[in-house]
Design brief:
Helix content: under 10%
Radius of gyration: 21 Å
Number of strands: 34
Number of helices: 2
């Protein structure tokens, strides 16, 4: 009986028109437990491991089975160039021999070239930056690639003040040029006073001229949470341009940062850790031509969602079109449980309006880590530590509607690979490319 189900699933795949042209499929890469796993994203949103034996011969002939490659054991962030040719993974690694710093581990960035079959291959030895930022479990968001694929920016590396006995003093933000080979060439850096709490988030605006870092506790010049803005020079230089302190800032935990690809808008999500309003709030800004951040009227909205995971988990996602913003949390109503809420983004002024389509997903979401959208914005994925079979990790799939609805994606291919919108894989930082 199992064999018949498996054969039927394979036949359905053979008949699906999306598989007629391999180049049209999106690919997804997940970094976890020292392995980088590769997947194909079918037209129905299903993530199929590259090399899955149920794929039709004409599609899988150039693919290898069990496609995973080594990566950083403590990978926390992953990014890709827009054309999907190069991947970058950041995370913690043991200090190398001869290391003179006083950090217990170092932050590294691994670079990979992606072949025609979608298989990543390491390009060169990892690029090392200072002390490791990852004091908590991944995933976290410390890498971003420019829209033209020529620059990579990374928040990673703690600078220590020797005069204060080696305490954390500031973090480094690095700019790299992506060479035609995919290798990283350092072109600039900047230091921001303060330490990450627990890990900063980074985002780059649509023009590529402004880089944002959220989630810093200031040490010099007063305490408080900070959203920092850096100006990106023509050759990649970085210079601190502005800083925004939040009300009751010393008690806000950030859980997301997103910049629009289609407009001059920036959004952050954070949660006060004291007082009566413990739910996640959304903060919105318009990025003026000169870089000034102008608060969007009404965008400092209370989502009425309590964070579902550690503060460094990424619970905010902006659709590629810039028209929808999604935030994950737990409803303040006990009967609702965990859910993903959606907001309409006004393309004129960036204002946020709740959509009538937030999906209560109590029966599926268990221990959420992060949410991510595919390149079309049609499918949303939640990386979950315990939503799989017998409490195992899994990727949960959702469909997004035109008016902001979020619907369980019940696509099934049968066999032992997936079951109705739950992909039983080790979860971690994910990137999806066309």
């Amino acid at each position: 009986m199992k064999r018949l189900v498996f054969v039927a699933a394979a036949c359905l795949l053979c008949a699906a028109p999306v598989h007629a042209h391999r180049d049209h499929l999106q690919r997804a890469y997940v970094a976890t437990n020292g392995r980088l796993s590769a997947y194909l994203v079918a037209s129905n949103g299903e993530m199929l491991p590259i090399g899955f034996k149920g794929l039709p011969a004409r599609f899988g002939g150039s693919l290898r089975s069990k496609v995973t490659v080594p990566t950083l054991e403590q990978a926390g962030s992953i990014a890709a160039t827009p054309n999907g040719r190069f991947l970058y993974v950041a995370g913690c690694a043991p200090t190398p021999p001869g290391y003179t710093g006083n950090a217990g581990s170092v932050e590294e960035i691994e670079a990979y070239r992606v072949g025609l079959a979608g298989v990543p291959r390491e390009i060169a030895p990892p690029t090392q930056i200072e002390g490791c930022l990852a004091g908590n479990a991944p995933p976290y968001q410390t890498l971003v690639v420019s829209a033209n694929g020529h620059r990579l920016f990374a928040a990673g590396g703690i600078s220590y003040d020797i005069a204060s006995g080696g305490s954390k003093d500031s973090i480094h933000v690095h700019a790299f040029r992506i060479e035609p080979t995919g290798q990283l060439l350092p072109v600039g850096d900047a230091q921001i006073a303060g330490l990450p709490d627990p890990t900063p988030y980074v985002a780059l605006d649509s023009s590529g001229r402004w880089l944002f870092v959220a989630g810093l506790v200031m040490l010099r010049g007063g305490s408080g949470m900070l959203l920092a803005e850096l100006r990106v020079g023509a050759r990649g230089s970085l210079r601190l341009a502005a800083a925004i302190r939040f009300a009751d800032a010393n008690e806000i935990a950030f859980n997301g940062l997103a910049a629009s690809r289609s407009g001059p808008f920036l959004y952050a999500s954070g949660t006060p850790l004291s007082g009566s309003a413990l739910s996640t709030h959304l903060f919105g800004y318009r990025i003026a031509a000169g870089g000034a951040l102008e608060p969007i009227p009404g965008a400092a909205a209370d989502t009425h969602l309590i964070p579902t995971a550690q503060p460094n988990y990424e619970s905010l996602a902006l659709a590629p079109s810039g028209r929808r913003l999604y935030v994950m949390g737990t409803s303040t109503s006990a009967r609702d449980g965990a859910l993903i809420a959606s907001y309409r983004v006004d393309p004129r002024d960036g204002a946020l309006r709740p959509s009538r389509g937030s999906t209560i997903a109590t029966k599926r979401i268990a221990r959420p880590q992060t949410i991510a959208l595919d390149a079309t914005g049609r499918y949303l994925y939640e990386m979950d530590e315990a939503a799989g079979f017998m409490g195992g990790p899994a990727v949960l799939e959702f469909r997004t509607g035109a008016r902001g609805a979020i619907v369980d994606n019940d696509a099934c291919i049968g066999g032992g690979i997936a079951f109705c919108g739950r992909i039983p894989v080790r979860t971690g930082p994910i990137v999806i490319v066309q």
